Amino acid sequence: MLATTLILAQCLMTSGISSTEPQLCSGLPASNSLQREGLSLNGEWKMVVDPYENGYFNYRWEPFDQQESPDKQSYFLDLKPADRSDRIEYDFDKAENINVPGDWNTQHEKLYFYEGSVWYRKSFECTPPEGMRAFVVFGAANYETHAYLNGRKLGSHVGGFTPFQFEITDFLREGAQSLVVKVDNKRLREGVPTLNTDWWNYGGLTRDVRVFFVPQSFIHSYGLSLKPGTRDTVILDAWIDNAVTDKKLKLVIPEMGIDQEFEADEHGHVVAEAQARRIYMWSTTSPKLYDVALAYGDDHLTDQIGFRTITTEGQDILLNGRPVFLKGISIHEESPLSQARAYSREDAEALLSAAKELGCNMVRLAHYPHNEHMARVADELGIMVWEEIPVYWTIQWDNPATLSNARNQLRELIHRDRNRASVIIWSMANETPVSESRNEFLLKLVEDTRAADPTRLISAAMEFHRDPDDANRLIVEDPFAEHTDLVSFNQYVGWYHGMPEDCASIEWHIPYDKPVFISEFGGGAKFGLHGDRFDRWTEEFQQELYIKTLPMLDKIAGLRGMSPWILFDFRSPRRPLPEVQDFYNRKGLLSEKGEKKLAWYVLKDYYTNIDRKWRNR
To answer: Is residue 165 within 8 Å of 27, Cβ to Cβ?
Structure first.
């Protein structure tokens, strides 16, 4: 299906990024910046913890960076205290160290529960090649970020899980550079997510930070996909920053026999078709990726991209036109290697390899955009992916700023991952109570998504309610389901509702001719805690819950997949129970260290049997 990049009107939407320099498409980062020439700023940084934000506000709560010093640079704590008498509390040179990428919670014990502001500083040498432009890109920073280079403000960003960048060409100086970043992870009632969540609020520069260099005119973004109704035609949709009339965008895909050049329009936009000799489709059993090269003048990019279709027909999900059952599992962005916020390719390989061992062909990345490596590794392993933004529980549906924030986070996620064949579902929300304002809010997200990317399915993790006349009759009926491609919902019969044996008497009423996907089910168990199958928190109880739940779900006529909750135990401030939870949600099939619980084997056997059943369809 046709992959469109964000249309110009969307590019000019409010993005949540402000800057002293003009930016293409309201600050959306350049595609595939990890592959561009540049230097990594990962490693050891200095940090200053600032719970009262004295480094940002004066005593009258006025931001310093909105005041001007005589040299017209932002008034900011970048120099040593001896140079600024009113900054005597701060000295980065004597400050503690912190590793980037990484969360501050697990690196410094005193910051384990901390929510507030932390200042980061990185000193580095940077001299761009002659005639080149320079950008600094952040993979993510949770949650509100203000960035300064050599005492001058670059801009700000809101949202904890999507990448953002600033051009720094005119901010660089001779010799050493000083990059200072304020990161504030305070939960906000008007935020996305809002105050109340069920995962750890990791703070800091949690993903890669790097400087990259590009020519004066460069390929800002690109999208490649199949032309609707064909399997031999590729659609290219790209944007050129500072396009010039004497250059063309070149696309080369050697295995397809594609080697063509295309002109950009007056806005720097390229939309074109390229005929291929033959295209082998990406699938879970054969995750074919093509080497792709793009060039515009002196700017060169390479990528690996797969091509596939994902559609629905009645109650079926069709991958490349063939029905598929989504054998999924939910995942939080925590690393079994370090028991901290996951960020690296190695983390992605550990998480997705565990899902693969379980028998999964799909994962749900909950409840926010995970790092870029997850989708790229999923491309390679042949694992389908559900991605979502943190529109979670009860955010402020009537607040225009909250809606703008959610739209921008979704926009940034789609922009980042639209070339990943593994990503098949964009999810709008999780467990949100039905109301008119909520429906209008979510419908705006759907409209944005359909316009930005019609190649993927749309869903949301909805809820059910009981028939008031029959406690065993559970109803999934949500006006928002009229606008989604899947009917997805969370259910915890046997854990939050009754006991596992109650599953046998449950009947589901789902009045939609659409595929049904169970986005969550499960129950808690502490690894190594054994007892009777009726004893909560034992592995035997969790095992029994899975044994009873799976036949109940099998009775749903349109069942086409599930992502039980969850692969690994993960941290949550809502889960303090001593000696059992200890601030972990224990619903994982694996402990936080990767130890298998009994229920792991129940789900693994079920997925093996699903394979046999679907092979005979």
So the answer is: yes
The Cα–Cα gap between 277 and 260 comes to: 14
Q: Is the pLDDT of residue 49 over 80?
A: yes
Q: Return the pLDDT at 78.
A: 53
CA distance 248 to 230: 26
Q: By C-alpha distance, which of 1, 30, 18, 12 is closest to 372?
A: 30
Alpha helices in 520-597 (DSSP H): 539-554
Q: What is the pLDDT of residues 529-556, one digit of tens each?
A: 999 999 999 999 999 999 999 999 999 9
CA distance 315 to 321: 13
Strands 457-462 and 487-490, by their bridges, are parallel
The separation between CA 541 and the C-alpha centre of its own chain, rounded to angstroms, equals: 32
Place of tokens 């001007």: 68
Torsion angles phi and psi, residue 362, rounded to 5: -155, 150
Q: Pinpoint the alpha helices (H) of 310-344.
A: none
Q: Please choose, from the candidates 364, 309, 359, the residue with its C-alpha nearest in 3D space to the C-alpha of residue 518.
A: 364
Any idea which of 6-15, 65-74, 75-84, 407-416 has the lowest mean pLDDT? 6-15
Question: What is the C-alpha separation between 539 and 569, in angstroms, rounded?
Answer: 13
Tokens of 304: 């690996």
With CA atoms as reference, report the closest residue to 367 among 563, 107, 583. 563
Write down the residue that tokens 């059943």 correspond to: 613
Crossing angle, helix 539-554 and helix 598-615, to 10 degrees?
Answer: 20
Whether the predicted pLDDT of 20 surpasses 60: no
The pTM assigned to this predicted structure is 0.93
* Exposure string for 477-491, b = 16+ CB within 10 A, e = fewer: ebebbebbbbbbbbb
Q: Is the dihedral of CA 75, 76, 77, 78 positive or negative?
A: negative
